[in-house]
Write a structure and sequence with these properties.
heterodimer; A: alpha/beta; Rossmann fold; 3 domains; six-stranded parallel beta sheet; B: mainly alpha; flat
Chain lengths: 463, 102
């Protein structure tokens, strides 16, 4: 197969990727879009296999077989609640592939005595650095989400200095390696330092900030692929990598805006660390809360005409999405209008709540974005907050001293009645006290989200 | 200065970034999770580079071959796992009509 034909195949693949992403603009065409992108990938891979340079087929096919098997098993077994971990891991693998390919290119050029020139040394350095960071950063994100390690920020004295020192070291190595790209000591040192930096940069970031981290690492995995494209002078990698890089950056910005925080603050602010908890601990006693039962709630639900359910990470933890769907069905059967208010950073990754509710067969028309649903709360009889905390905190609107002041939140307290289902009075992951719980129109129901919802459904049914 | 192929690649990069921003901005928050897993699968395009690395080293490139092989495995997990899990998720997003209104 000639080079021209292969380039043409890559062009077709790139077009299919773009069309595939464009079809993700609506849930009706999204499946088709995903399939188009998959076909594009198949074309790119088959074309590459037909390149005359490919001489060692057994090793390639073995790699593809092993990877396909692992990927297929993981994709079909993974629980929807574990999707953030899965995406984190996939980000990491993308980074790993970029480091490995760029390093392999260096080894290969070393044996051939072929010194890289022009933009290639810089691209090698970028692939190794970004890919390495993405690999270990994603593994730490995975460990936090899987709760293999603590989700709260890990901090120690001199942390910023150590990270700054290492970043400086990485920068120096980058410059040196760009000047002599075939030096194995420099290459291994840069691989080592970028792997270490990936770990150290993600451990001080708290669980609630994971949506930003995952989106950013998603972007990095794309940028690493893009840099690898420059190493190999391969336009397919450059185009696909930059598409993914752009996608991740947009999601990162959306997540940061939804928390009213800068990216730097998310990455280096260690939100939810001990000092934040201490600060909120000094807050004056805001009053007492009264615990209600699902039976009490059933009375109010049965007299309501409109209900808005606000899901949060707690729903995912309790695996309560199917129970929520049954409650929704029961309420709809009773002639009550039910909608869901989805905050952009609810859960542990962009779109997390939507996927869980879709899994439970909640039609997507009921899943309403924040800006659209906020004006509806004043006309709503009941707002049901389920495992969400910071995203419904009225302090973000009212209390200028609150660390989350200015963050756009769901204005549930404007509804006539608010029910909050929570395991205990512990503050959320950001460690900030929530005045919503003390409002006159708020009723707390303590317990496991799933159990409470099932009891509530029964109570509504038998009311 | 940079040679012509590098400039061509940079041009492609910049234009692709613009296309990416245009296209991705139109994806609704409803589908942000499938967008991430799907774009992850697309970034698995590194498999193309990995194949070239693993398969053209001949006798003298043991380390490069093994790095290429490992890269093929990782990138293929990305491609296959990414597209399959995205497909699985997207199949769950149903409009009101198709849901049996018992």
């Amino acid at each position: 197969m000639t080079t021209t034909l292969i380039q043409f195949a890559y062009l077709i693949a790139a077009v299919l990727f773009i069309l595939g992403l464009r079809n993700l603009s609506s849930p009706k065409t999204a499946t088709l879009g995903n399939q188009m992108a998959a076909v594009g990938m198949l074309i790119a891979i088959v074309a590459t296999l037909l390149v005359s340079e490919v001489v060692d087929y057994p090793i390639v096919l073995a790699g593809v077989a092993v990877g396909s098997l692992i990927g297929a098993v993981a994709a079909s077994r993974i629980e929807m609640t574990a999707m953030p971990q899965m995406v984190a891991l996939l980000n990491g693998f993308g980074g790993a592939a970029s480091v490995l390919v760029a390093s392999a290119e260096v080894f290969s050029r070393t044996t051939q005595g072929n010194e890289p020139t022009g933009i290639v040394p810089g691209a090698i350095v970028a692939s190794v650095l970004i890919g390495g960071l993405t690999l270990t950063g994603s593994l730490v994100a995975f460990a936090k989400l899987q709760e293999v390690m603590t989700g709260s920020p890990i901090q120690y004295p001199g942390q910023q200095y150590l990270n700054g020192f290492l970043a400086l070291g990485a920068l120096v190595l980058c410059v040196l390696l760009t000047m002599s790209p075939l030096d194995p000591v420099l290459l291994w040192s840069l691989i080592g330092i970028s792997l270490l930096l990936g770990v150290l940069l993600v451990i001080p970031i708290g669980g609630a900030d994971m949506p930003v981290v995952i989106a950013l690492l998603n972007s990095y995995s794309g940028l690493a692929a893009c840099a690898t494209g420059f190493v190999l002078d391969n336009s397919a990698l450059v185009i696909s990598g930059s598409l993914v890089g752009a996608s991740g950056l947009i999601l990162t910005k959306i997540m940061c805006d939804a928390m009213n925080r800068s990216l730097a603050n998310v990455l280096f602010g260690a939100f939810g660390a001990q000092d934040a908890v201490a600060a909120s601990g000094e807050a004056v006693d805001q009053g007492t809360v009264t615990a209600y039962t699902p039976m009490d709630a059933a009375v109010i639900f049965s007299n309501a005409r409109s209900v808005i359910i606000v899901p949060g990470y707690g729903m995912a933890v309790a695996q309560a999405q199917h129970a929520v769907r049954e409650l929704t069905d029961q309420l709809v059967e009773n002639g009550i209008e039910v909608n869901f208010a989805i905050h952009p950073v609810a859960g542990r990754m962009p779109g997390h709540m939507n996927v869980l509710l879709a899994e439970a067969d909640v039609p997507y028309e009921r899943l309403v974005e924040m800006d659209e649903i906020n004006p509806q709360f004043p006309e709503t009889d009941v707002a049901l907050v389920l495992g969400a905390n910071d995203v419904v905190n009225p302090a973000a609107r009212e209390d200028e001293t609150s660390p989350i002041y200015g963050m756009p939140v769901l204005e549930v307290d404007r509804a006539e009645h608010v029910f909050v289902i929570k395991r205990s009075m512990n503050p959320g992951f950001a460690g900030i006290q929530n005045p919503l719980f003390f409002k006159d129109n708020t009723m707390m129901i303590f317990g496991d989200a799933k159990k409470v919802i099932i009891e509530l459904t029964d109570a509504v049914k038998n009311y | 200065m940079l040679e012509a192929p590098a400039i061509a690649a940079l041009t492609i990069l910049v234009l692709a970034l613009f296309v990416g921003v245009e296209v991705i901005s139109k994806v609704p928050p409803l589908l942000h999770t499938p967008l991430m897993s799907g774009s992850n699968a697309i970034s698995g395009i590194t498999v193309v580079g990995a194949i070239l690395m693993a398969a053209n080293q001949g006798e003298n490139g043991t380390l490069a071959t093994w790095f290429g092989f490992a890269a093929i495995v990782f990138a293929t997990i990305n491609v296959v796992g990414g597209f399959m899990v995205t497909n699985r998720m997207l199949a769950m997003f149903k409009p009101k009509k198709s849901k049996s209104e018992e």
